[in-house]
Amino acid sequence: MLDDFMTRATLAGVGVAFAAAPLGCFVVWRRMAYFGDATAHAAILGVALSLALQMSIFVGAVAVALIMALTVTLLAGRGYAMDTLLGVLAHSALAFGLVAVSFLSGIRIDLMAYLFGDILAVSRTDLLVIWGGAALVIALIAWRWSPLLTSTLNEELAYASGIDPKREQLILTLALAITVAVAIKVVGVLLIAAMLIIPAAAARSLARTPEAMALIAAVIGGVSAFAGLRAAYMFDTPAGPSIVCVAAIVFAGFSAISWRSRSGT
After folding, report:
1. Does the pLDDT value for residue 3 go beyond 60?
2. Range scoring the smallest mean pLDDT among 54-58, 75-79, 123-127, 172-176
3. Which of 8, 71, 223, 260 is most buried, by the most CB atoms less than 10 A from its CB?
């Protein structure tokens, strides 16, 4: 079954969707969209360093994404607005990564595959990495679900409950770095934030509880991956962007339904 490249691509897309769904809910609740974008942009620098040092791209991407996320967390509130800080670090990391790639001699690299994904080239080894990373992210979020939710809703309530919001932020940051690393092959660094945010945002109008929102987001992400791949195959369009386009269409549809229900028309 796994000899079929479309089967491998579908499994990869669903794996990334399952990892991104619960994490994307926290990104939406905490208004961390730019934070996710900055972490994703930093991953291209991790790719360059991994190739230069001849080590696993997954390890390099996780390391650099985690360093970026921790740097933003440490520098936040020290004289710069968060959006300014994220903008500087995100685009600087992406620029340094692209420049670093240009210095790699003797190594053939398809830069577009890392920027926009190359899900159709996913191998069995890539599948193991993607699903292993997805399982780790899901386990982390499930383990810390209640403390993460409490610290997201109210930091003072978290402190009163014996929960350290900074520790929960660190766990969320680690999960985000892992998700970015496993999603590079599927949608690329420029579209990872979209897969984090769009399914969660679409699920928000349908869910009554946080748990339901995470489950609905996972379903929307999985359906978007499946439908986007089929659309890419039929219309000969880029696979990663096609997945994001389907997710955006689902979001627009649910938003329109929600708006009509609120307006009573």
Report:
1. no
2. 75-79
3. 8
15 in Cβ contact with 182 (< 8 Å): yes
At which residue do the structure tokens 């402190």 appear?
159
In the predicted model, what is the mean pLDDT of residues 140-159?
A: 91
Q: How far apart are the first and last CA of the chain?
A: 48
The alpha-helical segments, DSSP class H, found in 30-164 are 33-53, 57-75, 82-102, 111-116, 124-143, 145-153, 155-160
- Token pair belonging to 244: 């994001």
